[in-house]
Specification:
The structure holds two protein chains of two kinds. Chain A is mainly alpha-helical. Chain A has ten helices and two strands; from the N terminus they run ααααααβαααβα. Classes of the chains: A mainly alpha, B mainly alpha.
Chain lengths: ~250, ~80
């Protein structure tokens, strides 16, 4: 290769390098163009930010106003039912106790539930008391109490139609008579309901004063005496009274 | 001789070409970088404000719903209290 050719190649290489260097570096015109574009963008962003800041400030004011209005409404609601934080906590604790009792009773078999049916009455009276409190009008408690009442009603319903039996013991050991049986806490816990047992076992009890050890008595569900049961009791007492009056000679 | 002449000619032309081109000064380039940084910072601030605005709008909507519920509750409680008397 002669030196002219080599020189030509070198020149071309140098030119290429110089062109690359020039292409990478920014020209004054490019700088001006970029400066103009960026300045316009910065101004636009500043305007947008000012608008946004004003919107955010306005929203903060609105948020604060809404919070105040909400607090006022909640305070008024509490005042309507005469509730304070402490009384609400106590009321809630009472409702929790009722829930716990209902859960406990719901886990029992019907037989066990029957034996503890007095506790159903206790729960009913707790619910009734809770309903008398003005706080029960608050939606969160109102719905909860309604739910507790329906759970209790369901438990009572599960005992409906269920026939319990009681095996009569001896007088000397158990002091079993209809009066004493009705008085037992596991039966009616109310001696005056004895006619219910009598009327429920008319097939095997002719005279309520006479029941035999080993006799299996059906125990109807606890309830007020029916008109028929009251009438039977009245007849019994009248007969008893008549028998006690000495006959005229 | 001829070779050195060529080399000098080419080098001279290149120096003239590169040296005489219209380039921004270092100070101007710094100005451009500062402007870029300012734009980036503004974009970040706008993004933060956008998030804050969205969050505030959600909070306001939530409070509106609660306030509405509270007003309904008051009416309901009033009726229930009347029924209790």
């Amino acid at each position: 290769m002669n030196w002219n050719k080599r020189l030509f190649i070198h020149v071309m290489l140098v030119c290429a390098l110089a062109a690359t260097a020039l292409a990478q570096e920014m020209t004054k015109e490019e700088w001006q163009k970029q400066m103009q574009e960026l300045t316009a963008k910065r101004d636009e962003l500043k305007n947008r930010m000012a608008t946004l800041q004003s919107e955010v400030d306005n929203l903060k004011r609105q948020d604060s106003d809404k919070a105040a209005a909400l607090k006022k409404c909640e305070d008024e609601l509490m005042a309507m039912v005469g509730a304070t934080a402490a009384s609400m906590a106590a009321y809630e604790a009472e409702l929790n106790r009722i829930d716990e009792k209902l859960n406990e009773l719901a886990r029992l078999s019907n037989q066990e539930l029957w034996n503890r049916k007095k506790e159903l009455d206790d729960v009913q009276s707790a619910i009734t008391n809770a309903k008398k409190n003005k706080m029960s009008a608050l939606p969160k408690y109102y719905d909860r109490l309604a739910n507790q009442q329906s759970r209790l009603d369901a438990l009572r319903k599960s005992l409906e139609g269920m026939t319990m039996t009681y095996t009569v013991g001896t007088w000397s050991k158990d002091r079993d008579c209809l009066w004493n049986i009705a008085k037992k806490p596991t039966i009616y816990d109310n001696a005056f309901l004895w006619p219910k047992i009598w009327q429920g076992n008319r097939d095997q009890i002719k005279n309520p004063d006479i029941i035999r050890p080993g006799q299996k008595l059906k125990i109807p569900p606890k309830a007020e005496l029916t008109a028929e049961e009251k009438s039977a009791a009245r007849r019994y007492w009248q007969n008893k009274q008549a028998a006690a009056v000495p006959n005229n000679p | 001789m001829k070779k050195s002449l060529w080399v000098m000619l080419v080098a001279g032309s290149l120096m003239a070409l590169v040296g005489c081109s219209n380039k921004p000064s270092a100070e101007e380039l710094q100005q451009l970088e500062a402007l870029k940084a300012e734009v980036a910072s503004l974009e970040r601030q706008i993004s933060t404000l956008d998030s804050e605005r969205a969050s505030l709008m959600r909070a306001i909507a939530d409070k509106d719903a609660k306030l509405n519920q509270c007003t309904q509750d008051k009416t309901l409680v009033e009726q229930r209290l009347k029924a209790m008397q």
